[in-house]
Amino acid sequence: MGGPRGAGWVAAGLLLGAGACYCIYRLTRGRRRGDRELGIRSSKSAGALEEGTSEGQLCGRSARPQTGGTWESQWSKTSQPEDLTDGSYDDVLNAEQLQKLLYLLESTEDPVIIERALITLGNNAAFSVNQIPMKLVTGITFAIIRELGGIPIVANKINHSNQSIKEKALNALNNLSVNVENQIKIKIYISQVCEDVFSGPLNSAVQLAGLTLLTNMTVTNDHQHMLHSYITDLFQVLLTGNGNTKVQVLKLLLNLSENPAMTEGLLRAQVDSSFLSLYDSHVAKEILLRVLTLFQNIKNCLKIEGHLAVQPTFTEGSLFFLLHGEECAQKIRALVDHHDAEVKEKVVTIIPKI
Asked: φ and ψ at 270, to 5 degrees?
């Protein structure tokens, strides 16, 4: 290369390469050693904000979620493959370590190392969101990952053919999405995530991770319009999915339902009449309360002055016809005698809107 500058670039390259080699050594050594000896832990709960919290914190910039939604962090809950942070679990990787890890993630083809690297990145992002005092926010992990160009590197792994890697990538993006600046980077992947959610296996870990990411991306109104063309698909997954899937879809729909700009799109969605069975008294409370709140939110948005002043034409089979039909009204009125006090209280507030 010639000259001091060339020598400097060579030294920098050797240093980065050495760091990556050390990361590979640590990761591969972890695969050979027993769980008892490893500094590897399955991740703790990230402590997502409780549902119903009136104000969310977008780390890096304080903001009130315009939809009343809540942020959710996905820490790994499984023991294999495990997190590979070195030292005590409470350590957060510094910028140099994160750069090495991102280089490793981008350069390796070993699926086990890729998974572990994604888990480490995601856990560090979640740790920074939930544990670091906000007065120290300037150097928190998810901002460093963004500045190092890490979001596209992580997002590239949602294209991976390995479903477990795809899930870990979505979980890492989910943790990174609890930040306004990061969401600007992540939003370009929303359409791809939607395609994976609606075309992939029902109730799969990938589907649930994708739904969770979409939920976080719709806590504010900024990116909700990007889901307009997928609303009917959301209702399809709601009706066919298991309990966990139903709850996650409803969290997402509740975010949309509090935004008056999304009301018409929701009411136009073609929804099977079996949707009304979710208002039956035997339905699990966590589902029943959410479908009642969905009804309430949409009714509230319709009453906003000037919104839908000119009544659009809704086709038969749309959510509009289901929610405004007599069968729906009868089911909701019947819930006034529900055995759960919280459900009864919700119904009492809704009945005047029917």
From this structure: -80, 120
**280 near 343, Cβ under 8 Å?**
no
DSSP for 210-261, written as a single string = HHHHHHHHTSSSTTGGGGGGGHHHHHHHHHHS-HHHHHHHHHHHHHHHT-HH
pLDDT (tens digit per residue) in 78-93? 444 434 444 334 467 8
- Cβ-based neighbour number of residue 289 at 10 Å: 18
> Which residue, among 230, 168, 228, has the nearest Cα to 198 in the 3D structure?
230
pTM summary value:
0.78
Distance CA 218, CA 1 (A): 50
Q: What is the DSSP string of 73-116?
A: ------SSSPP---SSTT----HHHHHHHHHHHHH---HHHHHH
Amino acid 297 reads N
- Residue 318 phi/psi, 5-degree rounding, is -85, 165
Are 266 and 235 in contact by the 8 Å Cβ rule? The answer is: no
More confident residue, 326 or 131: 326
- Are 42 and 79 in contact, with CB atoms under 8 Å apart? yes
